[in-house]
Amino acid sequence: MNNLQQKAQQLLESGNYGLIVGYEKGTSGKARPVFIRKAEHASKLIFDESCDQNIAVYLYRQEIKHDKKKVIVANHHTLKSIVELAAENQVFDGDFMVLAFAENGDIIELNTFKEIEKHVATLYHGLTEAEAAMMKKIEDMSLEDRWAFWENEFSKCIKCYACRASCPMCYCPTCTVEINQPQWISVPSHTLGNLEWHVMRAMHLAGRCVTCGQCGKACPLELPIQLLTYKVALDSKQFFDSVAGTSICADNALAIYKPEDHENFIR
Amino acid sequence: MERKLLTKDSYRSLITKLIGQNYQVVAPVKKDTMIDFLKISSFDEITEDYIVTVSSAKTVAFPRNEKLFDYEKQNKKLTQQDYDFDSIPQSVLIGVRPCDAFGFHSLSSIFCWDSIDKIYTTRLERTTIIGLSCNKADDYCFCTSAKGSPGSTAGSDILLTKMTDGNYIVEIVTEKGAKLVADFSDLFTADGGADKESLLAKVAANFSVDDVLAKINSKFEDEAFWTEQAMRCIGCGACAYVCPTCACFDIQDESHGGKGHRVRCWDSCGLSLFTLHTSGHNPRENQGQRWRQRLMHKFSYMPDRLNTIGCVGCGRCSRACPVDMNIAEHCMSIIEN
Amino acid sequence: METQNIYLPYLMQIDKVSEDAPFVKTFRLKFINPEDEANFSFQTGQFGEYSVAGVGESTFCIASSPTRKGYIECTFRKAGRVTTALSDLEEGNTIGFRGPYGNVFPIDEWKGKNLLFIAGGIALPPMRSVIWNCLDLRENFKDITILYGAKSVADLVYKHELREWDERPDVKLVTTVDPGGETHDWTGEVGFVPTILDKMAPKAENTIAIVCGPPIMIKYTFPILEKCGFADEMVYTTLENRMKCGFGKCGRCNVGKTYVCKDGPVFSLKQLKQMPDEY
After folding, report:
1. Which of C35, C66, C101 delimits the end of a domain?
2. For residue B81, which of A51, B70, C74, C236 is within the disulfide window of CB 3.0 to 4.6 Å?
3. CB contact, 8 Å: A63 with chain B?
């Protein structure tokens, strides 16, 4: 048994905790979310580089939302999302404990939002090199080429909404796409309707996207849709110095107004 | 079953001639990062480097959006333009895996249940399915547990099996297949008697779908079981949209000015609003109930009502799932619990 | 129109609009194409898909009786997108109609029996079809009793017809409104439908009960009928579930393996008890 499994076992045996949300080995060596309720199942837990999925989405899931004896094993994406969800009052202080990992692999227990926020401050906030390169490639395109690029990508979207379902920040019980009076976004998955959906999604995540890339990872068609929300995340930082997932106080760019805010984007 | 031989060069000629004769030829194509069924204009676009395509072959007969008819409004008058059945092209669908080909059987049972969906049936009638046996499989494949096999001819009009020399064993399965072979008879030569079985992928049968069928009805009321099964499920529609047998749809209007059309588009029982009443009441209000519906539909309702199973073991849903809801595992857990 | 496209609606002209209650309207619809009318027939209990071009389709029952030829009627409450669009239409407008779909009330089997109709709120329309059907074949049945309740006096639909039924010597009509929903000149009962039913204590012998209403009303009405001695196969209701196609393909309306669109919407309590609680 490794550290994590031992820790999980202890927590469950203590009776103070009844549920551990973490990762287990899934099909073909992929990691997947797991819900451990019994100490004897703690050995299922894993935590390695395959565990890159953001699992904060489960914290407010109806079935376990009100379970105050839960623990979540959090990678850095999940941690940032917890901070952002805390800022937006979607999760509550003391409702769960977080098990995070130090660089040397040691387990860190985080019990309060303040502790999580402090820990998150030590993490890298920004795009990976590969992600930054993809962003640059698209930003360097001419307007026509960029349009063609996205038109091609959106033509493939089947509107399964895996992007929405896997994003911790997409927690609205009724999404704009489901509002039909008026019908903002067309239901069929044609290129135009898909574009409407993805642009709308990106705008709703402006200043809230923690750049975990979960939407892109979830997409069965592998559309690089995370680049859209990355773009608004980068703009939020550039224009408003707002980085989502860093502060448990609601201060995201599009939610508050400051007199010194730039207005040069209004044209 | 009649067997022939098709050399790789003749295969190229066949596809080239079909395209030349204005058939709509749909084949697995590598586009960007994924391999999917697309209309091709040249043989060279085809790839055979896939276990299965991302989306299923169902798109040929049940596209993700289907215009059902057009209409035009002028003042109080409304006129409708019926579906133009002549616009449905003669198609040849190639590279279809046996699991996918078998999926049309389930799909047809839904679209022909008492009332015939002529749009679907016409599309399928005008499609000749050239299957391709599987020479490789992955951890998601479970066709042999679901009454299929990597070399099953069921559902294909013609089944090709690639030999080690790059040529193909041809099995002529249906009259439609025989007609296509007869139309291009000079390209097909006498069967060399190669052993097909040895060319096929090995897919272990880890369970029998019959055991799932026998057990699943008794699980319906076991709410805790379904809640636990569905805990990971995040309620998107990926599984249903890539599934070769999922037929659930929505009907929507799209209009611009006074003109528009009614569209049938894919929908999924996994989405929370699927069954929501206008009153706010939702008969399937949690993900456990929705996941139960997905499995019950495939392994109970379809067998009971339509005498077919709603799963062919292609494993697409599990590959597409963002959280690895592996359907074969869930089947096994139904048997075991 | 010669078509085999099962999604293509009949074109219907709105011949008459009546406002039956706040937000509730009834349309009388006539076929625009005489051939459609000649080929069309339905039986009581069946439903259809009504559509506004550019907006979409909505499912509700045919509220008129098949004995009244030359038109069909539908009653709907303005609630969702399509019913809001329908509500905005006026006489002379064209709408689409697909149907009829679903099974029927087995009124042939009810010959020689007493009929007890119990309806609540906006659920009178499906009942209205079968009530008029039975009244138009009055000699086939013995006593006919109608118990109808709504939230308030204003919410009672088909007020003219309620008066007509009330005046008929061969119909016993009991109307009720929820406590607080009465007006100063209200002469009917005050109380929820199950409570009034309990008070009425209908005799079960040789009697068929037909119940339509919101789920909560149905839930509390069945035990009262049971208490009065009604056997499960003597009690009928209609189910509503979300539908798109109406013919067993779109995959939403099933309750377990039972498809409301094909096996229903009419079910006996006996059938209902064999179905899972998924409606």
Report:
1. C101
2. B70
3. yes
Q: Does B142 touch chain A (CB under 8 A)?
A: no
| Cβ under 8 Å to A: C residues 64-123 | 80-81, 84
Task: Show residues of chain B in contact with C256, CB under 8 Å.
Answer: 220, 296, 301
Query: Residue A266: what pLDDT?
Result: 76
Which C residues in the span 68-127 are in contact with B, Cβ-Cβ below 8 Å?
A: 79-80, 83, 92-96
Range of the domain at A185: 129-240
CB of A232 closer than 8 Å to CB of A205:
yes
Neighbouring chains to B with at least 3 Cβ pairs closer than 8 Å: A, C
The Cα A157–Cα C64 span in angstroms is 44
Q: Which of C101, C119, C142 is the last residue of a domain?
A: C101
Gap between the Cα atoms of B258 and B166, Å rounded:
55
pLDDT tops 60 at residue C1: no
Is C240 an 8 Å CB contact of chain B?
A: yes
Residue C209 counted as domain residue: yes
Both tokens assigned to C99 = 């149907």
**pLDDT tens-place string over residues C79-124:** 999 999 999 999 999 999 999 999 999 999 999 999 999 999 888 8
Q: What share of chain C is helix, strand, coil (3-state, %, to 5)?
A: 30, 30, 40
The whole domain housing C79 covers 10-101
Residue with tokens 């074969």: B328
Cβ separation of B260 and C244 shorter than 8 Å?
A: no
Query: With contacts defined as CB-CB under 8 Å, which chain C residues touch B113?
Result: 247-249, 262
In which band, very low, low, confident or very high, does the pLDDT at A258 lie, cut at 50, 70 and 90?
A: confident
Q: What does the alpha-carbon distance between residue A161 and residue A250 come to, in Å, rounded to a whole number?
A: 27
Structural domains of chain C, count: 2
Block residue for tokens 């002209």:
C13
Last residue of a domain, one of A77, A97, A120: A120
Q: What is the CATH number of the domain that holds A148?
A: 1.10.1060
Top residue of A196, A201, A221 to mutate, by most chain B CBs within 10 Å, is A221
Looking at the domain assignment, is residue C72 inside a domain?
yes
Within a domain: residue C3?
Answer: no
pLDDT in tens, A20-77: 999 999 999 999 999 999 999 999 999 999 999 999 999 999 899 988 899 999 999 9
Residue A250 has pLDDT above 90, yes or no: no
Give the rounded distance of the alpha carbon of C243 from its chain centre. Answer: 16
